[in-house]
Design brief:
Layout lengths: L18 E6 L2 E6 H8 L4 H7 L1 E3 L15 E3 L1 H9 L2 E5 L5 E3 L30 E6 L2 E10 L2 E9 L7 E3 L2 E4 L4 E3 L3 E3 L12 H11 L3 E3 L2 H15 L30 H5 L15 E6 L5 E7 L2 E2 L6 E3 L3 E3 L5 E5 L19 E5 L8 E6 L6 E9 L9 E3 L5 E4 L14 E5 L8 E2 L2 E3 L3
Parallel strand pairs: 18-27, 24-26
Antiparallel strand pairs: 1-2, 3-4, 3-9, 5-6, 5-7, 7-11, 8-9, 8-10, 11-28, 12-13, 14-28, 15-16, 16-17, 18-25, 19-20, 20-21, 22-23, 25-26
């Protein structure tokens, strides 16, 4: 007499030659334990799920919301990766001490770093910059079948991944930069960010601090988005909420909270360091603009105002005039004059593609090949499956890349907001940069 599966004897051990029943291709079949174990890691699935977390960047979220993003994998690894970001005081010789992760106005040992009234750095520490260390991150682009489609899935980890790639460690200024030709380029609180300089001038100022200093590159803008998307499963920083609906950041210095006629002028003189009390937590802090209106500075894992107030130039990205070709490199070098394709002959680089029209819903560059493998948050094309709530501006003649948006861009601002609309020599007063200690 037949018995039900639930009435079969229970076993606690199996050999390689034992078999399991499963449904394969809508039919009941069996597979040996040995073969099952082998196929668990098809397409590196088992090792990736054990060691890494993933973000489905160019795919519509499973809930159908284009401003959400599917994430998964090892949530413990994702938390360890987040916890590995460290805030520091950095001397120009590379020596550093840790800041308190709960309140960066103090060292990790509790000693005050800034004046508690003005946020001015104390004289004892005036030779230091306030920076954040982003750990060396390992990645892998996996091609995955989802229904009838194949997607490219980004995996990230603190542990090397099979057939993957590396995002180098980054040591980046917590604030938009302040400096001069004589004093160098700095990351200091209680300063109005310096503007109206070419990208080469900012880089030369950074070099005054030391030959290993330069400007934050495209890896920095990428990893801020990877952080936000993996933690909150959302794409729009201005609209991102906690599970109870509370806004995490809100609009930031995008101009909308100011009431004057010129919102960039209203917010341009807000000094750095307003969010130091948050430590490396996400959130916002109220301040006032030039008219006395209440506005808010934001902190993304300790980085202040990565959108709004000023556009930020980045090192390591340059488009070619009248072309969609965009050169991306990591070396601590910059072309001068008006860069052309030949400017990169002796610079290790990859070539990405930029979208040729101004768009709000973007698909980004992802490369699965061994050479150049990675996810690069540079708009490649229109993509109706995703929306970051931000905007991408371009011109066929644009070479310089800007990120974040300025205080007259309103809701177009954000971590994904980008601009390839300007000449390499641009010196507008609404454009700044952020400095870094390079390890290239």
């Amino acid at each position: 007499m037949a018995t039900k599966i639930t009435e079969k004897p229970v076993v606690t051990q199996m050999t390689d030659d034992d078999a399991m029943l499963m449904v394969v291709g809508n039919a009941t079949k069996r597979m040996t334990v040995k073969d099952f174990r082998t196929h668990l890691n098809d397409n590196d699935n088992q090792v990736l799920n054990d060691l890494a977390f993933y973000i489905d960047i160019n795919k519509r979220a499973s809930d159908g919301n284009v401003k959400h993003v599917d994430v998964g994998g090892n949530a413990h690894m994702r938390q360890m990766w987040e916890d590995s970001w460290k805030d520091i005081l950095l001397q120009k010789d590379g020596n550093c001490c840790l800041l308190n992760p709960n309140d960066c106005r103090y060292t990790s040992e509790g000693e005050a770093v800034v004046d508690m009234t003005t946020n001015e750095i104390l004289s004892k520490w005036a030779h230091c910059d306030m920076m954040t260390v982003i750990p060396l991150t390992y990645g892998h682009i996996q091609e995955v079948s989802v229904g009838a489609n194949t997607i490219q899935r980004l995996w990230l980890s603190l542990i090397p991944l099979p057939n993957g790639f590396v995002i180098p460690q980054q040591v980046v200024g917590k604030f938009t930069g302040y400096g001069s030709a004589s004093g160098g380029y700095r990351s200091l609180p209680n300063k109005v960010p310096t503007t109206s300089q070419t990208i080469n001038t900012f880089w030369n100022w950074a070099q005054v601090r030391g030959k290993n200093f330069g400007l934050a590159n495209a890896d920095f803008r990428d990893i801020l988005l990877f952080y936000m998307m993996s933690k909150y499963a959302q794409r729009s920083c201005q609209e991102a909420t906690l599970s109870d609906g509370t806004l995490i950041w809100g609009v930031g210095l995008d101009g909308t909270e100011s009431k004057g006629a010129d919102r960039f002028n209203d917010q341009k003189s807000i000094t750095t360091g307003k969010t130091l009390s948050l430590g490396n937590a996400d959130g916002k802090v109220a301040t006032t603009d030039a008219n006395g209106d209440t506005v808010h500075c934001v902190s993304v894992h300790g980085f202040e105002n990565p959108w709004g107030q000023y556009w930020e130039m980045v090192q390591g990205l340059c488009s070619i005039a009248n072309s969609t070709d965009t050169y991306r490199w990591r070396g601590n070098v910059l072309p001068t004059g008006t860069p052309t394709a030949s400017s990169f002959t002796n610079i290790d680089h990859i070539i990405l593609q930029r979208a040729s029209s101004t768009i709000s819903s973007v698909g980004i560059n992802i490369i699965a090949d061994a050479t150049g493998q990675g996810a690069y948050m540079l708009p490649k094309e229109s993509n109706a499956n995703t929306n970051y709530g931000d905007f991408y501006y371009c011109s066929s003649l644009g070479l310089l890349w800007l990120w974040g948006g300025t205080s007259n861009n309103g809701s177009a601002c954000g971590l994904a907001c980008s601009n390839s609309n300007n000449a390499w020599s641009n010196t507008n007063s609404n454009i700044a940069a952020r400095h870094t200690l390079r390890k290239d």
